[in-house]
Amino acid sequence: MGAVVRSKNPQRLRQAFTLVELLVVIGIIALLISILLPALNSARRQANLLRCQSNLRQMGQAIQMYVQTNKGMLPFSWWDGTIGGPATAAATDFSVLLSNTMGAGSITYATNNSRTRVREMFHDVDTIEGGELHYSGHPRLLPNLEDMDNSLSPPRHMRALPMARVKRTAEVVMIMDGVQIGVNGNRAAATCAFIDGTRFYDTNYLLYDHPKADNFHSIQPGANLDTEAWSGSAEEIRWRHLNNTAANFLFADGHVEARRYLNSTTCGLLRANVNVN
Predict the structure, then answer these.
(1) Beta 156-157 vs 187-188: how paired, if at all?
(2) Which domain covers residue 171, as residue numbers?
(3) Cα–Cα nearest to 258, from 89, 52, 115
């Protein structure tokens, strides 16, 4: 009777996967990745939206502090250091005013590139790298002091507004995501002068009680693009969140909401949200 030959190490027969087994494992991994990646991207976009909302809530708190320490007056969005002349060393914007109110030290417009904890609230995440301000103020509530208010007779330069004069505070937006401008170092304009598709200088612009206010229709949301120059989509709302379909807004009462962008003529923000009494 012949002898039975036995392997000295039977486990050697199972040391490696077969090619079919490897292909099955690779296929399962690829399938899992294809399922998980969209969910992970969606979660990341939602997290960025929430982080931006946190920034705006902090700005709302800083505005309340500013109002309390400045005789009830709201901050302005931009001042060139003169009125109508070339910018001087005294130029400043609302982010500098609020930073100093929040205890960031003696920051000026020229030195506001300090990456302090306070300054971080003006830096969004769904943006182009660079820029010290990614948000813009409402041109009537946080005015540009260089702008003329043509609704008055005679017209005069805009002035800071008492908080007590703001009506419908739960409806009217105050600060929002702004277009980044490349020539400005990817910094947003401090004033959202084209908040509803028309330059602020229009006599009847942003007035709730005007017969042509059309308060309960969508604003003109704009091109929804960042720009390299002070033209085109500059000084508009930038609907940069959730894959360029949403923007965040700080309302005058301090709460924050996201609104949706549908196309260049339709969005979830109404004229009642930008027109003031």
Answers:
(1) unpaired
(2) 22-273
(3) 52
Pairing of strands 173-177, 180-181: unpaired
Highest mean pLDDT among 9-13, 115-119, 220-224: 220-224
Q: Where do the DSSP E strands lie in 213-263?
A: 246-251, 256-263
Confirm whether 14 is domain-assigned.
no
In-domain check, residue 3: no
Please state whether the peptide bond connecting residue 154 to the residue before it is cis, i.e. omega within 30 degrees of 0. yes
Could you give the CA distance from residue 182 to residue 142 in angstroms, rounded to a whole number?
23
**Residue whose token pair is 């302005």:** 76
Task: State the SS3 of 43-110.
Answer: HHHHHHHHHHHHHHHHHHHHHHHHHHHCCCECCCCEECCCCCCCCCCCCEEHHHHHHHHCCCCCCCHH
> Is the CB of residue 265 less than 8 Å from the CB of residue 220?
yes
Cα separation of 175 and 66, whole Å? 15
| Total tally of structural domains belonging to the chain | 1
Domain membership of residue 163 (yes or no) is: yes
Q: Tens digits of per-residue pLDDT, 218-262?
A: 999 999 999 999 887 899 999 999 999 999 999 999 999 999 999
Cβ within 8 Å of residue 257, ≥6 positions away: 248, 249, 251
